[in-house]
Specification:
Elements: E1 6-10, H1 14-30, E2 36-40, H2 44-47, H3 64-71, E3 77-81, E4 93-97, E5 106-109, E6 121-123, H4 127-136, E7 141-143, H5 149-153, E8 161-165, H6 166-171, E9 178-182, E10 196-201, H7 205-212, H8 217-233, E11 241-247, E12 254-261, E13 268-275, H9 283-298
Parallel strand pairs: 1-2, 1-3, 6-7, 6-8
Antiparallel strand pairs: 3-10, 4-10, 5-8, 5-9, 11-12, 12-13
Helix pairs in contact: 8-9
Amino acid sequence: MTGSPVRVATRGSALARWQADHVASALRAADPALDVDLVVVETSGDRRLDVPIWEMGGKGVFVKEVQAAVLDGRADLAVHSAKDLPAVTPDGLAVAAVPPRADPRDALVGQRLADLPPGALVATGSVRRRAQLAWLRPDLTFVGLRGNIDTRLGRVPEGGAIVMAAAALERLGHLDRAAELLDPSVMLPQVGQGALAVECRSEDARTRELLAGLDDTCSRVELEAERGFLAELGGDCDLPAAAHARVGAPGGPLAMSGLLASLDGHVLLRRDAMLERVEADGDAGAVGRALARRLLDDDGGASLFDR
């Protein structure tokens, strides 16, 4: 599989570069003669740090320009935080690999949830995190938070906390800063949190073959289930939504939890689903879609879109 260099498109943040380097290292480990180069792409999400993500269009603000680099031939593949991906893959691209997933949990930096004093300030740029924390602790106050990992770590409110992905802290060597890792039973993660998604052009047989060895079956099934959930909500749902799928072994049972909430956290709907055995392509996505429909139809979640 040696030949021309494999070009990897990535954002320029320290976390994005770590993730791209992680995939590049795995490719080189499989073929030591392979030449892998990074192609750094600036995204609209990186340029506009003064605007909340949901006001910029939510999912996609960190990936569209990176995907474009692959589609127009400037790069052969792109490495994304799976949580940044819209629910539908653009025409011409394919998620060719989902490497083994890291910790999907959220982390509090500053204080543990139970130790936050009444009225404590919590900084987060995520409506999902804000809604769930407001449901758990209606007394808390919130402020937005944007920027790279180091910038956010420098903005922990006195006596309060910031909320970050545990995987991001771990990948950059800051997991020791976490005061608490929130179990999914307490804080349901974002769709795809902790997972990487590697995209390439659908018709690029050489790159797809290279990436096949990086794909982890359980991680892919979990991601497919969670993206199916998001797709059924409307793809780029701007309401607080969360989903977490768990697969213990290839072909084994799939357990899943899904959540939909109002922006203020006054209404929070949560349901679980189970599939005894994932046997065919599409099974996982179908579980996610069915779970979303139950939240929307049976639990009245559709009314949240009218608020």
